[in-house]
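Example (one chain per record):
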Amino acid sequence: MEVNLRRLSVFTADLQLILGKSMRTCQRHMQLIRDMYALEKQQPVTVYHVAEYLDTPVSKIAAFLKITRN
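Predicted structure:
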């Protein structure tokens, strides 16, 4: 499965859909991801960061967010 390069960033609302948790909990997860990769506040969190943080294949995250190319 090939990941579409038009949308690699993951936002808190996306993480909320993936995890099924509250917005505040997902904000905490986003901060943990940023800390894990030493990202600044303005730097985007990518699908690859989230996949590694959740220990899930990138293809599953991309498929869930519907950013795959057929």
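Caption: The beta strands are 2-3, 68-69.
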